[in-house]
């Protein structure tokens, strides 16, 4: 099973290698404004899932929010360590 750190390493490699068809590359190219809107959208879906949907749907929505947060970090040139120092 993929961990949070595994996903970040995979996305960082996508940003460097830029494989064709990568949604991550497309999102990075779209820029901070677009990524920020995805984060807001996914955060809303997490909230709705938590109030009205089952555990599996909550977990899936949270995974999508975490993905977009990681893309935002990469877009800003930040690492997980930059975040962990505040945890
Ligand atoms: N974990 C994710 C992941 N979570 C969410 N998403 C994206 O976030 C979107 C959110 O899903 P929704 O159901 O809200 O989709 P949607 O609103 O219809 O999406 P769009 O219309 O915005 O495409 C999806 O369309 C995916 O593009 C992800 N995209 C990729 N990954 C993983 O990231 C890695 C790299 O992916 P690529 O860069 O695409 O190769 C792979 O391991 C993927 O599994």
List keywords for this structure.
single chain; 87 residues; mainly alpha; Helix Hairpins; globular; binds phosphoribosyl ATP; nucleotide-binding; ATP-binding; hydrolase; histidine biosynthesis
**Domains counted in the coordinates: how many?**
1
The CATH architecture name reads Orthogonal Bundle
SSE pattern: HHHHH
Strand content is under 5%
Pfam families: PRA-PH
Organism: Rarobacter faecitabidus
Keywords: Amino-acid biosynthesis, ATP-binding, Cytoplasm, Histidine biosynthesis, Hydrolase, Nucleotide-binding
Family: Belongs to the PRA-PH family.
Describe this structure in words.
The protein has helices at residues 4-17, 23-30, 32-52, 55-75, 80-84. With 87 residues, the protein is an all-alpha fold. The longest helix is centred in the middle third of the chain and has 21 residues, at 32-52. The chain starts with a helix and ends with a helix. It binds phosphoribosyl ATP. Phosphoribosyl ATP binds at residues 10, 14, 22-24, 64, 67. Its EC number is 3.6.1.31.
Strand and helix layout:
Blueprint: H1 4-17, H2 23-30, H3 32-52, H4 55-75, H5 80-84
The chain binds phosphoribosyl ATP.
Pfam family, one: PRA-PH
Pathway: Amino-acid biosynthesis; L-histidine biosynthesis; L-histidine from 5-phospho-alpha-D-ribose 1-diphosphate: step 2/9
GO molecular function, one term: ATP binding
Put the structure in a nutshell.
By secondary structure, the protein is mainly α.
